[in-house]
Design a protein that fits this description.
Layout (H helix, E strand, L loop, with lengths): L11 E2 L3 E5 L5 H9 L1 H7 L6 H11 L8 E7 L5 E11 L4 E8 L8 H16 L4 E7 L3 H9 L3 E12 L2 E11 L5
Parallel strand pairs: 5-6
Antiparallel strand pairs: 1-2, 2-3, 3-4, 4-5, 6-8, 7-8
Helix pairs in contact: 1-3
Bound molecules: coenzyme A (COA).
């Protein structure tokens, strides 16, 4: 382990949610979550079998974390795991990286991801001293676009025909948020 690597992630708390480090017992949730078309369609994460999920899980969800990490979003009332937030492509020298997020569809439209990301972004900016956070989203992912705009992300441009989805090449929007803009 070196200074650019984390062994333990904190537990973040909001009014309705706990955002916590994942552990081995969450593997099945992660597998089932990314099998759902509503999740995999835009996250582009999909695993063909539990072995493939485990390979991903070991790198993204279990320590040590140096280039990326994924945390679980848990409902405070029931302890149910309902989604994830991620920090990806972490560049320590330039103090930047990319945001990822997904919520089980039955919990959409309740402001839960907005609530989770407010706390997660605060952690990234204040505790990990990240300077710039990028987020990309398919131009047809209206809920995700709306969420990023509400959080103060600025649209930087369109990555034209970046991903082939449903048989045709689709545009991906690039957003960013700078620490000084976030409060
Ligand atoms: C992107 C995603 C997280 C957005 O979920 P979401 O629930 O729309 O996001 P929010 O937490 O910001 O909730 C906002 C909604 O809650 C509503 N809301 C706000 N306050 C509320 C309250 N107190 N009670 C109930 N609803 C409320 C808002 O009006 C908004 O709904 P609307 O869009 O119908 O107006 C979700 O669609 C998802 O997981 N998609 C699949 C994965 C994905 O695309 N990830 C991003 C890849 S780039």
């Amino acid at each position: 382990m070196n200074s650019n690597s984390l062994e333990i992630l904190p537990q973040l708390e909001t009014e309705r949610l706990i955002i916590r480090q994942l552990n081995g017992s969450d593997l099945e949730f992660i597998h089932a979550h990314y099998q759902r078309p509503e999740i995999s369609h835009f996250t582009l994460l999909h695993f063909n079998n539990i072995k493939e999920t485990k390979e991903y899980f070991d790198i993204s969800c279990l320590p040590p974390f140096s280039r990326e990490f994924k945390m679980g979003i848990v409902l405070r009332d029931t302890s149910e795991l309902i989604g994830t937030v991620s920090f990806l492509s972490w560049n320590h020298k330039h103090r930047n990286g990319e945001l990822g997020y997904d919520l089980a569809p039955e919990y959409w439209g309740k402001d839960l991801m907005f609530e989770a990301l407010l706390e997660f972004l605060t952690y990234l900016f204040d505790n990990l001293e990240i300077h710039r956070i990028e987020a990309t989203t398919n131009e047809n992912n209206l809920l995700s676009k709306k969420l990023l705009e509400r959080l103060g992300f600025m649209l930087e441009g369109t990555m034209r025909e970046k991903y082939k989805i449903d048989g045709y090449f689709q545009n991906e929007l690039l957003f960013s948020l700078i620490k000084s803009e976030y409060n």
